[in-house]
Amino acid sequence: MPESNGVGFFFTGFDKMTHLGFFFILSVLLFYGKIAYQHNFGFRTLTIFKIILINVLIGGGIELLQWKVFTYRSGEWWDFACDMLGCFMAVFSYVLLHKLNFNEKSN
């Protein structure tokens, strides 16, 4: 992404926020697919691990491609960190909503 001077739509940090948002949405859609496929809202640690692993592979792969393949892009650790932050935000939301749903049903 071209460097921005903070004027207009593209502000400083827009690229990082985009990474965070896309990986949050990706993770939420993966959780949604899991819930729809299993027809329940069951909490499984293995599912969370798989979704984190998928995000690590996609985020890491994108940054490696930007670093080694594309000459007009550069791979950055901060982009990868924002990818993982978006993923962990979705994991936290899933766990929080599961706990709220579980507590509501048990009362």
Helical amount: over 70%
Instruction: Estimate what percentage of residues fall within beta strands.
Output: under 5%
Mean pLDDT across residues: 86
Q: Would you identify the regions where 5 or more consecutive residues have pLDDT less than 50?
A: none
Structural class by SSE content:
mainly alpha
**Mind summarizing the main beta sheet?**
none
Rg of Cα set? 17 Å
- What is the terminal separation in angstroms? 51 Å
**Total strands:** 0
Keywords: Membrane, Transmembrane, Transmembrane helix
Organism: Pedobacter ginsengiterrae
Transmembrane segments: 20-37, 46-65, 77-97
Protein name: Glycine cleavage system protein H
Structural description of this entry:
The structure is a single chain. This protein is mainly alpha-helical and 107 residues long. It has one domain (14-106). 74% of the residues lie in helices and 0% in strands. It is built from three helices and no strands. The protein has helices at 14-38, 45-68, 77-106. α1 (14-38) packs antiparallel against α2 (45-68) and α2 runs antiparallel to α3 (77-106). The protein is elongated and about 55 Å long. It starts with 13 loop residues before the first helix and ends with a helix. The chain crosses the membrane at residues 20-37, 46-65, 77-97. This is Glycine cleavage system protein H. Keywords: Membrane, Transmembrane, Transmembrane helix.
